[in-house]
Write the structure tokens for this entry.
Amino acid sequence: MTFSFDDLPRPQPDEIQNISWSVFRNLRSCPKQVAFSNDDQLKRFGQSVYSLIGNLAHDFRESAGDRFPLGKIDAEQLWDEVAENEVRNAITRSFAGSPPPEPSSWPNYSQTRQRSIDLAVVEPSDRDATFDSGTPVKVEFEKWIAPRCIPVVARLDLLITTDDVAKIGELKAGKRDEEHVDQVLFYSAVLEAESGNWPSRLWIEYMSDKSKIPVRLDKEKASMLLSDALEARQEFNADSKSGEPVAADPSPSNCKYCPYKPICSAYHLSGIVAESRYDESVVVVIKTKGNSTSSVVDVVAGDRFKTDHVMIYPPELDEFLEVGSTYAVGNTIGSDGEVIELKWNSLVWHLT
Ligand code: SF4
């Protein structure tokens, strides 16, 4: 059978209701990624080991915030419960019910665990000595704010407030990135839009090395980031309404963590090659099926064009794969160019 790039789906996105920082950031790098993620027909499971540790840290802080203040033993127990839950959720989201790697092997796991527990047991007054001792302090983790006057939403990792002062902390499990400063400034502008007051202090905490980096409150830049986000939302919504194809901007950095690579014609046509054998995206046609865990396939698009490849997959997928049909698969392992292996977080789309 012949494969054409027209066989790959063209996203038909819904409009963006309220723009968040992550959607704005993705719009700045590649609007087509946002279009894919806003198309309900195309929503597929997608997770990486990096998103698992990030989700775990967020979920723990949310639960710890509900139970604040917590003793150290209770906090450790809570962390382990939330980690078990994260594994269960990952299995549910996995297309084949396959378990993720052990949590202890997730990136920065032990530092993130330790730092999260330390944060959860610290008394609010110790968090920030600048608060007046007599003033009631409210500590909120994972706080959603959505000003009524503009279509924007923000989830703050840590918001500390008294009657008249607010402070925003952004907690990061991964490595440092200049963009984190813009993120916190964006949050400060959203908070100002909601409450009418700018926060008095901003900072970013990196769990891996326990550093706490203060961020200067640049109100002009913060306001500009917010208005750029609102403008980007408006442009995206106008484009999706017009039915015109949404712009794509393929590049190694934009596409590296994009879960839509396997079904993205712009990615395949760009000729970008996956950096590692753990991250391949190919379109395959099933030629013949072997036992319940392998098939012979032709690779018709992607990092390697090749006939008679062996594709290995979990047995749960056997019923789903049909001889003669075309599938886009991503997050696969390619071993020396001879075998394609689907793993716990691989992506699979049935195309034709
Ligand atoms: S694969 Fe690359 S070009 Fe395609 S949607 Fe994702 S980021 Fe954009």
Remarks:
- The two ends are 11 Å apart (CA to CA).
- The first strand starts at residue 138 and ends at 145.
